[in-house]
Amino acid sequence: MVSLNHFWVFSLALLLLASPLLQVVRCQTDSDEAVQATEEANDTGIVGDDVQDLVDESFLPAPGIDTVCVFPKNSARLVTAGEETELLVGVKNDGDSSLNVIAIKASVHLAYDHRLLVQNLTTQVFNNGKVPASAQATFPYLFAVSKFLQPGSFDLVGTIVYQIDQNPYQSTFYNGTIEVVEAGAFLSIESVFLVTLGASLLALLGIWVNGKIQSLSKKAKRAPKVEVGTRSTDASIDEWLEGTAFTQSQANKSKKKK
């Protein structure tokens, strides 16, 4: 019975001695996680849901930052409704500090009234979008307009959100027209116009060439004119020959014929 009591006392003492050690280990683990989270926050400047807050707001562009947009293999900027379209966003950092690209967003508006919003497109977030000073980088962006959007011309506004020295900025990399076409439609309105214009020019060229050929063939068929008749004598020559033997012989010939 005494040995059993000694065992419980010994076990309780071990637990009391071990509990501070467990607390220290747990505190150390929590501290490491906090340090890691702080380092990640310093890398991106934002944590978690703060991305959406930055995307929803509007900011001014930072000085020394230039952006450009390219539609790879799609210079006509044709966007098929319901299908993904890719564009590339180039960022050039001529500032003194590095920047962190947070997200790229875009929206579709009516071409004749930019205030009328048609669709907010997908927001693409970047976890490691660092661009050092005096450097440039390219970021891909995929978007898809609604498959129910009717074909036609619309305005696309693309914006890139970034941070410099923990301060948020944004720049508009594209603000122009796109041509939305139906899925499976091979010809757009612009393509139909170009094809029609080309066919008209070819028809006019054919008519002109045909007219030239007919004109040349008519000239070739014309025979050279041969004038038949007596040759008129110059009056001055007749006066000079008057009274000579030539005029007398000519007069005698005419009398004989009579």
From TrEMBL:
<keyword id="KW-0732">Signal</keyword>
<dbReference type="Pfam" id="PF03896">
    <property type="entry name" value="TRAP_alpha"/>
</dbReference>
<keyword id="KW-0472">Membrane</keyword>
<keyword id="KW-0812">Transmembrane</keyword>
<dbReference type="InterPro" id="IPR005595">
    <property type="entry name" value="TRAP_alpha"/>
</dbReference>
<protein>
    <recommendedName>
        <fullName>Translocon-associated protein subunit alpha</fullName>
    </recommendedName>
</protein>
<keyword id="KW-1133">Transmembrane helix</keyword>
<comment type="function">
    <text>TRAP proteins are part of a complex whose function is to bind calcium to the ER membrane and thereby regulate the retention of ER resident proteins. May be involved in the recycling of the translocation apparatus after completion of the translocation process or may function as a membrane-bound chaperone facilitating folding of translocated proteins.</text>
</comment>
<keyword id="KW-0256">Endoplasmic reticulum</keyword>
<dbReference type="GO" id="GO:0005789">
    <property type="term" value="C:endoplasmic reticulum membrane"/>
</dbReference>
<feature type="transmembrane region" description="Helical">
    <location>
        <begin position="192"/>
        <end position="211"/>
    </location>
</feature>
<keyword id="KW-0106">Calcium</keyword>
<comment type="subunit">
    <text>Heterotetramer of TRAP-alpha, TRAP-beta, TRAP-delta and TRAP-gamma.</text>
</comment>
<comment type="similarity">
    <text>Belongs to the TRAP-alpha family.</text>
</comment>
